[in-house]
Amino acid sequence: MTPGGGVPEAGHEHPTLDDPLVASLSESVGGPVGEHAGRHPWWTPVRVLLAITALVLALGLVQKTSCYADSWQDGEARYTHMCYSDLPYLYTGRGFAELEWPYGDDAEVRSRYPVMEYPVLISYWAWGTGWATHWLSGSPDITPRYAVGTDRLNTVDGVLAESRTYVAVNAVGLAALTLLAVWLLAGVHRRRPWDAALVAASPALLLTAWVNWDLLALVFVAGALWAWSRDRPVLTGVMVGLGIAAKLYPLLLLGPLLVICLRDRRLVDLGRVVTAAAVTWLVVDLPGFVSGPEQWAHFWTFNSDRGADLGSLWLVLDQATDGATTASAVNLWSLVVLAAWCAGVLALGLLAPETPRFAQLAFLVLVGFLLVNKVYSPQYVLWLLPLAALARPRWRDHLVWQGTEIFYFAMVWWYLGGDLEPTAGGDAGLYWAAIVLRVLGELYLAAIVIRDVLKPWHDPVRRTEAGLSRQLVVSRS
């Protein structure tokens, strides 16, 4: 038995027999696996996937080496070397270097530090890893830090070293959660554990894993997909609720579940999911709300008041019109376009010849959300990764899509570093092009998923479930 799939390895759909690109690449090492190929007694698919994940995450840390070496103090290198991370700056910028609770309402603390602009679970995690950092640093006396302005906190002895330790502590914790996420994804489709390799070996994961805390939400999305595949609606709701407490976007998972439950007449299960999600979210949010209602509400007001920001189509429009857009207008039109997009996904789900899979509908809804969002940070690709891997498990399509994400990843840092400014002045047109290309990459993958929903015989997962010939899958995908 395999840890993630729960079925004998012989029942697995091998990628060299299922994915045309993998099959063609395998020719350089002897071709697709044969019927009598031996099975390694220890290296099961899930263990291989976990090893790949660990390697990719480690390479992601290597990619941040130049910034780590100077504690992210070189303002130019963090952009030119594309090794920027929010974590060391938030360690000193949100009070964790002084062990401040993110939802404290002490007037002196609030005048010294801005309130955390993240949902509660990320704030708890950031605070908890701050305590772990202090303990690993020998529990230094923080009293002298109160006499220094926050803009000069890095000049205090030991703080820069702590900021590096803080990144390392978060990297270890988030890596453990990512390994759990890959394990869960490998078990969603029992005969297709290798689909999780699209997350484990993702170039986007390597580049963006350590920019912020977005991996925290990824594990709960993976957990929701796993729990639903096991017909456990209450656990699905718990995972969704935890995801919403970490990032708002897992709330969108409830829409696809509504479509599936309507088609399959599982409204009781839907009620269990929604109830469990609501209760879980309330319980997790309660400590933050009770200790500081105003600070707890900051996340909601912050996102409502912000205008067009990095990575969004709204930013292109705003810069092209010399700042003519307003936060209220962007809020309104974002909701209008998202509502229309979701209505389209609803119609697609209800009219499809077969009930679409959870990951397919969830991916489509999330694409719509990101396309109209006011900010589209480079690490938001992590939101899509687990859903895309299960919605369209084909390497060719993922490489096309992630190629546009990687191009954007380079452009956004060079844009922030001022390297894309035209010598004659004006707007950074190459950055606009990167934003548009990224959108086109997502729409490409979304179009393929829509085709799979409308024509299920194109869907690799449906083919496996239907027991069709492996050679037929390779020849017609």
TrEMBL record:
InterPro entries: GT87, UCP010361
Transmembrane segments: 42-62, 118-136, 166-186, 198-228, 234-262, 332-352, 358-377, 398-416, 428-450
Keywords, ordered alphabetically: Cell membrane, Membrane, Transferase, Transmembrane, Transmembrane helix
Membrane topology according to the record: Multi-pass membrane protein
Pfam families named in the record: GT87 (PF09594)
Broad class of the protein's primary localization: membrane
Cellular localization per UniProt: Cell membrane
Record family assignment: Belongs to the glycosyltransferase 87 family.
Protein name, UniProt field: Glycosyltransferase family 87 protein
Taxonomic source organism: Nocardioides aestuarii
